[in-house]
Amino acid sequence: MVLDEINKHSVILASRSPRRQRLLEGCGIKFKVKLPEKVNETFPETFKAEQIALHLAHLKSDAFGEVSNNEIVITADTIVWMGDKVLDKPENYDEAVRTLSQLSTNCHDVITGVCLRSATKRKTFHVTTRVYFDCLTEEEIEYYVSTYKPYDKAGAYGIQEWIGFIGVEKIEGSFYNVMGLPVHQLYRELVSFIKH
Asked: Which residues are catalytic?
């Protein structure tokens, strides 16, 4: 079975995100969590959309350091892209409210860049999901931010939380990508990475 081939390797998820950890577990892949050195998550101003996500996943991979034989290190970065700009993780309550007000009645792209690295090679890919929000009232936005405190989430929301249930009208693409890891594509890419 293909899963057995993956699990013969020492897979390392270099991410502190509990959502990414749960998603990778859901694939049946055995892995350890090891965090890279602190990464300066800056990117050239000329970069757009998937260029940013791929660049940041690459930086995290480099920050991990040496990769031993039989190890495969996975790094990832998810951004929210709307109106030709990145909507970062909000730093405080007011910023989260402003971000969600922007998302209301609009669509945006959630882009995850992923880097796979072994001792001898590296592969990067990205997945984009388009998310459409219905109209969010001021009260709904304030309730969500006060209750869920989405300060660790790009775009100031988690689709798997209350705001996703009541606010997301539809998506085009991978739901799990919006949570932070495009596990369908990651599984396929891991199989290819091991075979070639």
From this structure: 77
